[in-house]
Design brief:
This protein has 413 residues and is mainly alpha-helical. The chain is 67% helix and 5% strand. The radius of gyration is 26 Å and the shape is globular. The two termini are 35 Å apart.
């Protein structure tokens, strides 16, 4: 006979068993979070470790960069009467600072940077103004891009990259409208960045900033058809505003033999380095082009020295590392749980990947010569430090913040 009392007892026992099972699952989740690499936060979340593949790729790139800087800069240092390690020691010092910056940013919740985006942009504009209009600005090779404060010399235009990425990730995560009243201050800051950077002159950085902006806007869901029309209309204007030596670079790029000892010299010597490297390379430290023929072999044309010493195999390995970096960066963006994190990851990944593509294309004569370093690799403390800090933000985005089950149980109880 059907017993209501028995049924109630069974239900209550089943509920108790279910609650115990639910609590057991919660306890298991807590244990798995502790032993599986997750870290508990006071707000009831579990923070997972950052992307290990991305860390491994970055370590490879930084180590290759230090090796390449030493090999390519030692002859120049000796010729100047300095220690062959002078450039390498400076690069390592910036690397150490960049590693600490990367660690700090990877541990910090990236959403905290959203409210600082506009202020950070104005700070960068202030630094660019100091470069152009104060004695603190330093001119090297007819370009006034560096700021000297005591013994510290750095390039503020490098900081434009994270500042622009942060600003546009912030405004387009709110809405996809290209123009509204809230966005005007951000566009004013970005315009000042472009103007002051172009004045240095640093046209390659201007191109990188604009293309990064387009990438973020497109990934946010924007329509970029109009930008192609604006770009086509801007080409004639740009041609009449760029400097004579920049026009010469475009013309010489088509035929470097027109001026083999002048504007075409760097391109020719870079191609000679690629030819000498062949498939296997001449061996680490055995590059001849770096001795006196290839200018800026430790900075803008360091990829040519790598090509000569390690050949096609070395170049292919380095390209694969950057390809994996870009793949992991976009994968992190696709897995991010909020639009701000997605756009921030896209901007950082695109900026580093596109800069690497431009540098390697310049050294192999695929595009006209520009003064842009190879990320992680080229000598230059500002570039290495900023790139490592941007990597830290990307690692922060890769860390999953999962709400603990126990926090939800308490709400039921």
């Amino acid at each position: 006979m059907y017993s209501r009392k028995g049924h109630d007892n069974k239900d209550s026992q089943g509920n108790r068993g279910g609650n115990q099972g639910f609590r057991g699952n919660s306890q298991g989740a807590r244990n798995s979070g502790n032993h599986g690499g997750g870290r508990h936060k006071e707000d009831g979340t579990i923070v997972t470790p950052p992307d290990k593949t991305l860390i491994a790729v970055a370590i490879f790139l930084v180590v290759i960069g230090i090796m390449a800087v030493f090999s390519s800069s030692a002859p120049r240092a000796i010729a100047s009467g300095d220690s062959p390690l002078i450039f390498t020691i400076k690069q390592i010092a910036w690397m150490i600072g960049g590693i600490f910056g990367c660690w700090w940013f990877s541990k910090t919740n990236y959403n905290q940077f959203k409210k600082l985006s506009l202020m950070f942009g104005w700070i960068v504009v202030g630094l660019l103004l100091l470069v152009q209009f104060t004695p603190l600005g330093v001119t090297v090779n007819e370009a006034k891009r560096w700021l000297m404060i005591g013994p510290l010399q750095f390039q503020p235009s490098e900081i434009c990259k994270p500042a622009a990425i942060l600003m546009f990730a912030t405004i387009f995560s709110k809405n996809i409208k290209l123009f509204d009243q809230a966005k005007i201050p951000h566009y004013i800051v970005f315009g000042l960045m472009l103007l002051l950077t172009y004045k240095q002159p640093n046209l390659s950085m201007v191109v990188l900033l604009i293309t990064t902006f387009l990438a973020i806007y497109f990934c946010a869901g924007g329509n970029i058809k109009n930008f192609f029309l604006y770009g086509a209309a801007a080409v004639p204007v740009l041609w009449f505003t760029i400097k004579d030596y920049q026009k010469q670079r475009l013309l010489i790029w088509l035929d470097p033999e027109k001026d083999p000892l002048g504007a075409g010299y760097n391109i020719i010597q870079s191609l000679v380095a690629f030819a000498d490297g062949s498939f296997f390379g001449v061996g680490y430290g055995n590059s001849k082009q770096k001795l006196s023929w290839l200018p800026e072999g430790h900075t803008d044309f360091i990829f040519a020295v790598i090509a000569e010493e390690f050949g096609f195999l070395g170049c292919f390995f380095l390209i694969c590392l950057f390809a994996v970096f870009v793949y992991r960066g976009f994968l992190i963006a696709s897995r991010s749980t909020d639009l701000f994190g997605k756009l921030l990851a896209v901007g950082i990944t695109f900026s580093i990947g596109f800069q690497a593509l431009i540098n390697m294309s310049v050294t192999s004569a695929l595009v006209p010569a520009t003064g842009i370093p190879l990320p992680f690799i080229s000598y230059g403390g500002s570039s290495l430090f900023v790139t490592l800090c941007m990597l830290g933000v990307l690692l922060s985005i890769s860390r999953k913040r999962v709400q603990k089950i126990s926090a939800r149980i308490k709400s039921y109880e």
